[in-house]
Amino acid sequence: MEAQAPLSLSNHAIKELSESQAFTSSIPSNFHTFRNSDEELRPEDFINEEIPIIDFSLLIGGTAMERSEVIHHLCMACREWGFFMVVNHEIPKRLMDEMLDAFEKFFNQSEEEKNEYINKYALHPIRYGTSVNTHEDKIRYWRDYVKIFVNPEFHSPVKPFGFRNTLFEYAASTRKMGEELLKAIWESLELNTEDIEVALDIKSCFQIIIGNLYPPCPQPELALGLPPHSDHGLLTILLQNGINGLQVKHNNKWLHIKPLPNVFIVNIGDQMELVSNGRYKSVLHRAEVNGKNTRMSVATIIGPSHEAIVAPAPQLVEHDHHLAFHGMRFKDFLEQQQANPLKQRSIFDLLRVTND
Ligand SMILES: O=C(O)CCC(=O)C(=O)O
Ligand SMILES: [Fe+2]
């Protein structure tokens, strides 16, 4: 089948493109992504049974013994996997559904309404767009998104009706869960819990909520929704609408992660790898698209405060006799990461301490 010519419009929503029927059988050539044949997955590469499961209720309401078992399990999950599933969390199913529904209504607005939030500046508090970084990327991705900063200052689009209230409640609930998980992860590194505030200024944590929309794609084997990347923060809490698409790299192999009802996937981000002196790995992941269904995800990224200079915890450096990374002010890290094309982990790799 002949490929369509590259699509030159700089910000053309994938949703409208998918619905326009302009590309019913083949997609524009600038959406073609390169994948090695060993990166192709087989259906049997679903591995949910093996992914570590963290029972949140035991972390906050269990006996001392139960809590310490969960923390032990978290240590293994963060070191060997970089991600885990969270079950028995306190976020109501009703709120999870309402959040997905609110984002769906956001994307269902007219292009004119959504385009109000197109913004070039990487740290603008509300940014709607397509692909990853429309102005920088040569390859385009089959994804529309809206990124909203919700803490320490809360922002929200005014429309659609009810979006703001749902976002506010969802942001507060995921932040609470994120803070509990962060404290537990800190403990799993055998660091003093009081030091977490000094190191990361969690009270003013920088929290972003990203709504991702991946409409049906006529050639899903050629396109990607999101290329391989790691997340910039400390933790990402991912909610999905029940459609497959998330893949993570584990032991050098891409694996499918099936979305399960009422379960969050949590992954370690770059700042956690940094502060843990490289003990905990910020995992590479990507999003596939499919030919039939619209996939949606809501990623909540919890980071340190903008002003925190994030560096490996001194106790870990001393214990390991090795400094794995240079420190950097989180805001500077973000500015660079968000303004550049998403190339695996390029900004993060610049902070790695090398011996030459
Ligand atoms: O849609 C997904 O499953 C992944 C989303 C993601 O990785 C992100 O927004 O950073
Ligand atoms: Fe991500």
UniProtKB/TrEMBL annotation:
Pfam families: 2OG-FeII_Oxy, DIOX_N. It comes from the Eukaryota. Residues 201-304 form the Fe2OG dioxygenase domain. Keywords: Iron, Metal-binding, Oxidoreductase. SUPFAM superfamilies: Clavaminate synthase-like. One of its GO terms (molecular function) is oxidoreductase activity. This is Protein DMR6-LIKE OXYGENASE 1-like.
